[in-house]
User: Which sequence fits this backbone?
């Protein structure tokens, strides 16, 4: 747990410093007429104090059981779900919703160990078409058709 | 409009076909969410929020509020039958509820939980009917320093009480406030922290943040575990009747739980969860046989289950009356209202009576529908646990992605969702609560705006926050939240030291 916390606070500490550095670029104004740069300095300071306090607390704490980060198959499933989401976000303008929704479902079903290819394929197609019907047709969300198909 | 006239008007709104269906649907979806362990009410509300875009404001809030209080009902079912709380507010119910189920009294525990939820939910809405309009009148007198003090107290109280240490709470709060500063700032419309990315100028929306931290983080945790859910035992309709002795013990606990729940629910912080602990402690203290607690005391089910439902109603009081949410679920209701161009706050009752009174009236109807439908359908709810998990996971992930995109038609929102999902997953692994982050994203702009307006008003003097009675008092309470616990520990330590020396 301690190692995980220390990594987190290091990242947050760096983030706080970068946030403060960027915040210094904005006009702070005066106390009577505060500009857009004053409040970010307070927020950055809070973030930095939180990171430092958490870090010191982690260093002074008794050793506790390590966080069970996923390994092996569990890590594979986690990465597959994340990759499916990332793929959807990155490729949406090019491949469009229906193709990507079908592929995403197929990837997740496969990663989660659902048996039977036919079943997986049928479910993926149903999810792809069903989500398009619900969001694009019923709710009127303008889902991109995909530039590759235009 | 006095509360009675308002309520009658509210019923005329809530009994419209669309709103009635919305209340019923919200309550039933909420029950399903409560039954399924993992995705909590806030996650479900975030996922379904984009679906409400095409609805009228009152209908959107009716369906989302239904999900919240429906989840409070549903959470107890798996807690009692499987020792698997469907949502955090049902953790305490599982202690004695599961023990009752082990002794063959599962039906009685379920019935008491449902009746308790109904009574508390209804009493909570009665109190909401009376309190919220009165508080809204008082809220008209509040100025920027008071709003700043209320928002600060809400954020710091939540960061102090939502799990993890004080420093971890402040860290998460700082992250949320930093996220809230991205985009156009609220006073002079300067863009900040956009790094030249044009879509970021409109700021980071609450929907991908809440959906990522609550919904996607849970999907990632489920993907990692990938274990099937346990098979639930069957419960016959005939078993659902508590005996006379059980009723006699449960009814006072239900009433006490309703009172405790409503009062705790008015406070900033994870009220629904805290109210169950407060009620459980009270019941154990008042019990003739406190040793029975933990081994199947019916008061241990009746009190906390009533408390979390009353807290769910109370949570709406600050949101509807002063426009400030103190819990993630309330923040999502606020998001739904603002998405529809409705600003909650003191003028809500006056400017949008259909929204205010329609939502209040729909809660009476929703609570009644939940009582009538839930007990006979307990078998149906449990069958939700048999859904194939891979399909459920793929469906929820897809729903989140499309739903997030649908709010602003923005690809940036999809990346925010994924980043927040990963952050939420990491924080959950480290046992750090994410609620302050979500609330900070909502309250951050108000905090900054009221802070700067106060400084303008006082010509730069910070005294304005202390010299105005209400803001001074609220800031003193905020300070006490951080100073009193270590002080008490210090004094207790000193008290123990001389005692140990004497021994």
Assistant:
């Amino acid at each position: 747990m301690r190692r995980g916390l220390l990594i987190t606070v290091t990242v947050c500490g760096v983030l706080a410093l970068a946030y403060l550095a960027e915040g210094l670029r904005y006009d702070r104004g005066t106390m009577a007429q505060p500009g857009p740069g004053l409040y970010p300095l307070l927020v950055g300071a809070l973030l930095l104090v939180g990171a430092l306090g958490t870090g010191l607390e982690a260093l002074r704490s008794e050793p506790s059981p390590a966080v069970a980060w996923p390994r092996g198959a569990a890590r594979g499933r986690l990465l597959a779900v994340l990759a499916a989401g990332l793929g959807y976000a990155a490729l949406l303008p090019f491949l469009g919703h229906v193709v990507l929704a079908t592929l995403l479902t197929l990837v997740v079903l496969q990663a989660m160990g659902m048996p039977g290819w036919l079943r997986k394929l049928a479910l993926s197609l149903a999810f792809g078409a069903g989500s398009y019907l619900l969001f694009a047709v019923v709710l009127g969300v303008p889902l991109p058709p995909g530039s590759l198909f235009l | 409009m006095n509360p009675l006239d308002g309520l009658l008007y509210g019923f005329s709104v809530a009994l419209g076909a669309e709103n009635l269906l919305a209340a019923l649907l919200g309550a039933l979806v909420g029950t399903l969410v409560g039954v399924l362990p993992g995705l909590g009410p806030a996650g479900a509300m975030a996922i379904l929020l984009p679906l409400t875009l095409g609805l009228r404001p009152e209908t959107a809030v009716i369906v989302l509020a239904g999900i919240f209080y429906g989840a409070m009902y549903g959470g107890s079912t798996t807690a009692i039958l499987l020792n698997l709380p469907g949502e955090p507010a049902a953790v305490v119910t599982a202690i004695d509820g599961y023990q009752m189920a082990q002794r063959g009294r599962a039906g009685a525990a379920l019935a008491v939980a449902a009746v308790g939820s109904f009574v508390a939910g209804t009493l909570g809405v009665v109190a909401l009917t009376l309190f919220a309009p009165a508080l809204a009148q008082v809220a008209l007198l509040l100025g920027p320093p008071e709003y700043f003090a209320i928002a600060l107290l809400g954020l710091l109280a939540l960061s102090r009480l939502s799990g993890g240490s004080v420093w971890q709470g402040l860290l998460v709060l700082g992250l949320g406030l930093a996220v809230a500063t991205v985009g156009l700032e609220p006073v002079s419309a300067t863009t900040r922290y956009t790094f030249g990315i044009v879509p970021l100028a409109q700021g980071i929306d609450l929907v991908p943040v809440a959906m990522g931290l609550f919904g996607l983080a849970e999907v990632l945790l489920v993907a990692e575990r990938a274990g099937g859910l346990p098979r639930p035992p069957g419960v016959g309709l005939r078993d659902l009747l508590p005996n006379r002795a059980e009723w006699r013990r449960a009814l006072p606990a239900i009433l006490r739980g309703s009172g405790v729940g409503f009062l705790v629910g008015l406070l900033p912080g994870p009220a629904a969860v805290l109210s169950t602990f407060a009620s459980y402690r009270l019941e154990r203290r008042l019990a003739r046989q406190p040793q029975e607690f933990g081994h199947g005391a019916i008061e241990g089910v009746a009190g906390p289950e009533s408390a979390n439902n009353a807290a769910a109603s109370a949570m709406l009081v600050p949101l509807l009356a002063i426009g400030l949410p103190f819990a993630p679920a309330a923040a999502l209701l606020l998001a739904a209202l603002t998405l529809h161009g409705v600003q909650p706050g003191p003028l809500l009752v006056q400017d949008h009576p259909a929204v205010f009174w329609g939502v209040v009236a729909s809660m009476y109807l929703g609570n009644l529908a939940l009582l009538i439908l839930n007990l006979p359908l307990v078998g149906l709810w449990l069958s939700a646990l048999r859904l194939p998990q891979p399909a459920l996971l793929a469906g929820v992930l897809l729903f989140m992605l499309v739903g997030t995109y649908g709010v602003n038609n923005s690809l940036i929102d999809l990346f925010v969702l994924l980043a927040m999902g990963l952050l939420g997953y990491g924080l959950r692994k480290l046992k750090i609560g994410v609620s302050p982050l979500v609330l900070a994203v909502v309250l951050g702009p108000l905090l900054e705006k009221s802070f700067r307006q106060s400084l303008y008003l006082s010509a730069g003097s910070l005294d304005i926050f202390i010299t105005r009675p209400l803001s001074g008092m609220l800031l003193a309470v905020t300070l006490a939240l951080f100073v009193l616990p270590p002080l008490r520990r210090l004094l207790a330590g000193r008290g123990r030291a001389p005692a140990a020396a004497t021994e």
Notes: Residues 2-60 of chain A form one domain. The two ends of chain A are 51 Å apart (CA to CA). The CA atoms of residues 5 and 44 of chain A lie 19 Å apart. The mean pLDDT of chain A is 90.
